[in-house]
Amino acid sequence: MTKFSTRPLYLQLHDALTERVASGQWKPGPIANEGNLAREFGVSLGTVRKALDLMEAERLVTRRPGRGTFVNDQTAHDLSSRFCNIRTVDGRPVERQFRVDKTEETRANDVERERLGLGENDRVYRIRRLRMDGDRPLMVEDFSLPTALFLDIPDTIPDIVVLAQQNGMVLGKAAERITLEVAAPAVSKPLSVPDNSVVLVLDQVIHTLLGRRAIWRMGYCHLGHEYTYLAEMS
Amino acid sequence: MTKFSTRPLYLQLHDALTERVASGQWKPGPIANEGNLAREFGVSLGTVRKALDLMEAERLVTRRPGRGTFVNDQTAHDLSSRFCNIRTVDGRPVERQFRVDKTEETRANDVERERLGLGENDRVYRIRRLRMDGDRPLMVEDFSLPTALFLDIPDTIPDIVVLAQQNGMVLGKAAERITLEVAAPAVSKPLSVPDNSVVLVLDQVIHTLLGRRAIWRMGYCHLGHEYTYLAEMS
DNA sequence: CCAGATTTGTTCGTATGTATC
DNA sequence: CGATACATACGAACAAATCTG
């Protein structure tokens, strides 16, 4: 590996390999073994191992003794549902389907600039849609996506994980702030709950694996008695 | 390190070192350097390093180049507040103070046995108290603690992290399920909110670092406009 | 400010164990 | 059983951060 930077080799390698996945050069499935990667990049086996261990912790790959190292399918249900903590009471992740997409492209407002770390003249796509659990309305979602990162927005919006993938990004960490609000009609109607219902407001920012703020989403969700919000801490 | 088990050496070492902290043999502050630990346990430097790296990820120790490895003070504010995701709107963790403790010792009921993984005749301590942010009531908490793990329950209950420490345990991961409920008088009164207020119900199970379920807590919290719940996901 | 000692961080190499095919 | 690939463990060398005198 050419040494232009003083940054640790295994981190540079991590970024290079992550880029191969993000760009689509490496698709879900097996990749070269540790020894071949070490030769290809001119680093030691331990360095390759450290980079791959990191990527496994980030859920980008899975390593299996005797089998090999595999790029994960980010669109698999358990991976793409990790940015929504809502579960049915028996712990099952919700089925995701979407309705009523509405998209516009405009200059970012103050909140969008603050949440996404944008500049004065940066622009965003705004998407409003209804997230369904099967045939039951679950959450009204308002997305803001920087046009600088999302070049290609199709007419019908797929899951955000897929949308990120189509734009050469892999999603990493996210943080979500929860508050309570009385639902406005624009929320209670699509959710088909009474006008004065109290709903969870989920203010979420999602970063890419390389640390860029890529998605801001406001979610409005009436848990009812069928759903819970599941948080883990350590 | 004597090899009685087929379990990886670095995991055995991890447990041994964790036990030194849990038992109080190692108090917050510097510990022996990697080389000395390797000699003491008869393992290689890399094995010590792997065990300590794991313990750092678990936030049990902090490692600093040129300085050494330090046992963390689990009662420090940033560490003991990690099991409560409630923040003020400006992101500050809440000040924790407690009121109105009420303790009883009794046989575990069905829910307690299920949440804590207890047997038919196991017993628990039940503690109800009011968590304050400064002088403002924040959350009504109902704790259930297995008597098998908590031998020594003082009259005035300190923070659960301290209570665990006094009983030779270090807390690790926790999971929390959130639902919404209309506050019962037993909740709305101490919180001094109206009777029909909707509150967050926080159903939390905390594990020790060695993986035992140690604490079940039901929390009842009225966020209001001053507080938010902060969740992270990856 | 520098020189040297100490400690963790990174990188290399090698050998052996374990899981899978 | 043998071949392959990841997992563990050891050892050694140098780099980078920190502290001391």
Characteristic key phrases:
homodimer; 234 residues; alpha+beta; Arc Repressor Mutant, subunit A; Chorismate lyase; 2 domains; six-stranded antiparallel β-sheet; three-stranded antiparallel β-sheet; globular; DNA-binding
What proportion of the residues of chain A form beta strands (DSSP E)? 35-45%
CATH top level of the largest domain in chain A is Alpha Beta
Tell me, briefly, the overall form of chain A: globular
Topology order of chain A in helix (H) and strand (E) letters: HEHHEEHEEHEEHEHEEE
Strand order of the largest sheet of chain A: 5-6-7-10-9-8
Quickly give the CATH architecture of the largest domain in chain A: 3-Layer(aba) Sandwich
Tell me the CATH superfamily of the largest domain in chain A.
Answer: Chorismate lyase-like
- Quickly count the domains of chain A: 2
Biggest pleated sheet of chain A: 6 strands, antiparallel
Structural class of chain A: alpha+beta
Continuous helix count of chain A: 7
DSSP strand tally of chain A: 11
Radius of gyration of chain A: 20 Å
Low-confidence parts of chain A: none
The oligomerization state is homodimer
Largest chain-chain contact? Answer: A-B, 25 and 25 residues
CATH-defined fold name of the largest domain in chain A: Chorismate lyase
Would you write up a description of this structure?
The structure is a homodimer of 234-residue chains. Chain A folds into 2 domains: 9-71, Winged helix-like DNA-binding domain superfamily/Winged helix DNA-binding domain (Arc Repressor Mutant, subunit A); 82-229, Chorismate lyase, CATH 3.40.1410. In chain A, helix 1 (9-22) crosses helix 3 (45-57). The first copy, chain A, has helices spanning 9-22, 34-41, 45-57, 77-80, 110-116, 160-166, 185-191, and strands at residues 29-30, 61-64, 68-71, 86-88, 97-107, 123-133, 136-146, 171-182, 198-208, 213-221, 227-233. Chain A is an alpha+beta fold. The two termini of chain A are 36 Å apart. A 6-stranded antiparallel β-sheet of chain A has the order 5-6-7-10-9-8. Chain A has a 3-stranded antiparallel β-sheet with strand order 1-3-2, with helices on one face. Chain A has a two-stranded antiparallel ribbon with strand order 4-11. Helix content of chain A is 26%, strand content 36%. Strand 11 of chain A pairs antiparallel with strand 8 of chain B. Chain A binds a DNA duplex (21 and 21 nucleotides) through residues 8-10, 33-35, 43-47, 49-50, 52, 63-69.
